[in-house]
Amino acid sequence: MADEWDGKKLSLHPEEGRFDSGIAESVQFLNEDEVSRLQSLPEEGSPKSEASHPYETEATDKICELQDLERIDSSYGSSSLTESLPQSCLPTSGAPETGSLGTEQINSLTYLSEEGDTLLHLSIIHTIPELSQYIISLAPKEVLDIQNDLFQCPLHLAVYLGQVQVVEALVGKRVNLELQDRKGDTALHLACENQDLDCASRLLRGPRGPQNLQLQNWRGLCCLHIATLKRNHDLISLLLESGANINCQEGTSGKTPLHLAVEMLDRSLLHHLLQHRPLVDAFMYNGCTPLHLAVGRKDAGLARLLCQAGADILQRNREGDTPQDLAEGNNQLLALLPFDDLMISGKPVVTSA
Predict the structure, then answer these.
(1) Contact of 29 with 11, CB cutoff 8 Å
(2) CA 28, CA 14: separation in Å to the nearest integer?
(3) What does the alpha-carbon distance between residue 189 and residue 217 come to, in Å, rounded to a whole number?
(4) Using alpha carbons only, how large is the chain's radius of gyration in Å?
């Protein structure tokens, strides 16, 4: 009898480290007769329980545990997820202080799924804001900053899914705003990518203070570059008002937002950026200014805006070409870039009457 129970006890243990998925695999070997037999064992405290084998109660508890975990893995609604949690982990009339958490609560908050997700990650993914905010009120900042296997912290997920109240709660707990996911994106990068002004404004005006707006993702883009590429004027203004550098260079070729606006041939966007007084002759790594790009694309409208903002028509790039050189043969552009024969060191000499 003992040997028979030893075999059943060993077979009931799920694969170590499995929590969020794979539950079905760990119990698929139990046939209906075995499950029925284990579930029909006497309850604790009954006359038979004292004479029963010491493994019986543990085996029954293990089946219940596996069934509960299976519900967590397959549930997509708030009720099925919360029903499977211990009652001590669910919201009560008031949130206890972080320092008063019990062992069971701490284990629930820090337990990682197979993909490295905490309970907070899962509650955000399953769109249960009440549970998410309750966990945030309980957990210390170190727990709230845990990153999963994709290097996503809960703040990444909340921004990506547009859960503004959860974002606000996390920012209020002073979580790290500069954590980067596997693509190098911070939560603010994601807000700019999604053009989510509500999330972006909460990330920029939190109690932690200004974050590093120069931080680039693995494509070399900071948040202002992304907002520019999205042509979102309001988002650009929000970032600049929050301290973003309008002359920031992206990491691959050194383009500033002005260069990007010219590349996209967007006159309205270029005009909007020029209102914030950028360095109009900013260099790319190859020495080209925005005016070089505008003339190279034969866009007189863009070139006119840049010239009106004071762009240098004789600035040379690494190949020694000026915007004026690139305009050769284009009368419309040459009219904007008048040639002056009298130059010293590449600069026109202006004589006074």
Answers:
(1) yes
(2) 11
(3) 8
(4) 31
